[in-house]
Amino acid sequence: MSEDRPGPRLPGKVALVSGAASGIGAETARQFARHGAAVVLADVDEAGATAVAEAITAAGGDAWATRLDVVDEAGWRAVVAAAEARHGRLDVLANVAGVSGRGEMDMAAIAARGGHSGARVGFEVGDLSLAAWNRVMDVNSTGVFLGTREVIPAMRRAGGGSIINISSICGLAGSFANAAYHASKGAVRLLTKATAAQHAADRIRANSIHPGFVDTPMTRAGHANNAERTARLAATPLGVFGQPYDIAMGCVYLASDEARWVTGSELVIDGGFMAM
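-> structure tokens emitted (276 positions)
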């Protein structure tokens, strides 16, 4: 594509997206395909990922889905091998899969010992069980590590690639809530920088994206709490929640050759939260 002629931004590229069944992952897969990439949609929810892939295909895109639990080392290896076998290369990985940790909290036990109410329930360090901590770290941090590690050989064979890791504003700033989530996203940020430094010679770029408060299935429970919703909007200067499209288009940029000199960076897409 000529630099002065707009058009599809990812022609000929093969992209793997984890967490592709819904939310930011699904929209990233759709936008990758719209911009000319062949897309592998991976998710523990295989039926959901398949539905998104079928919709992409029906719209004229190139996509297929597979089951992947991001904490499964052998699963990552198999998905990367299948992608490379089917398409002959792998150019892009978007590590989108993640959990908030809210589902791992024992809210009744926290309330019984005088835990906080509203947005703060169950998210302070003193409220965390080891199991809840490990679950969040396993999915959000170890899952990103495994995906990153497993795509590097394939990207070397392809002559380079782009690894895009979804962190969060919570990977940049602390808050009164959800210590495990913050820790896991901070780990993603620095793993990304290490990857960028270590694999620049392989022409593999690695960057993190730091979304603010985005409306997705993962944030639905929090945004249903009026106090939490109001507090999050008040902390967002633009005054509205982000949408998956806003983050997906950041992924498109980092996956494209337009970002050929961008590695080890933090792309903040947050409605102004970090400007406060």
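The two ends are 39 Å apart (CA to CA).
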